[in-house]
Write a structure and sequence with these properties.
Strands 1-2-3-4-5 form a five-stranded antiparallel beta sheet, sandwiched between helices. The chain has one domain. 37% of the residues lie in helices and 25% in strands. β2 and β3 form a beta hairpin.
């Protein structure tokens, strides 16, 4: 058997196992580790796939002033016993020509707790600093989350700054619309 076929079969098996875990309400191990790092003391991580309907997308886009580019979003709920510690989403998007993957942790009331960059394939000088990302902490649905307004720009990394701001706006509204419980 060729190595390419073996790699493909392995990739398919991993994807199927991850899909089965999400279908059962469990987070895939890698995603669960990310969520646990965002919410120390988490006892259980639940995954919920949400397929955004046309009506939901129209509502989210209007509130977020941003285009929804994906109809399937997986939200994770971090719990300790019966208490909800918060929610998270792991999201990828193209910055300029390459992908960036980040995790957004939300407080139980829906405010942003923290944004963490997990993977950044653009040149390092375009990557947002931890200090810049901390501007999002505590922001909620009533905040504009707009670069140049309530978010400082990043000199030389305008596309990165605008991308994270836009993606954060629609994911914040998607959480409010789809998951419920978060305000």
């Amino acid at each position: 058997m060729s190595q390419a076929v073996l790699i493909t079969r392995t990739a398919v098996a991993v994807a199927l196992a991850a899909a089965a875990a999400v279908a059962a309400g469990q987070a895939p191990a890698k995603d669960e580790a990310v969520v646990r790092s965002l919410f120390p003391g988490t006892g259980r991580v639940e995954a919920k796939d949400v397929i955004l309907t046309d009506a939901m997308v129209a509502h989210i886009e209007q509130l977020a002033r941003a285009r929804v580019k994906e109809r399937l979003v997986t939200f994770y709920t971090a719990r300790k016993d019966a208490a909800v510690l918060g929610y998270a989403v792991i999201h990828s998007h193209v910055v300029r020509t390459k992908r960036e993957t980040f995790a957004i942790a939300f407080e139980p009331d829906g405010r942003i707790r923290k944004i963490t960059v997990l993977s950044f394939l653009e040149p390092e000088e375009y990557k947002p600093s931890e200090r810049w990302l901390r501007q999002f902490d505590g922001k909620g649905a009533r905040d504009r989350l707009a670069v140049g307004d309530d978010l400082a720009p990043i000199s030389g990394a305008t596309l990165t700054a605008r991308g994270i701001a836009e993606e954060s706006r629609w994911l914040l509204q998607a959480l409010r619309t789809a998951v419920g419980g978060a305000r």
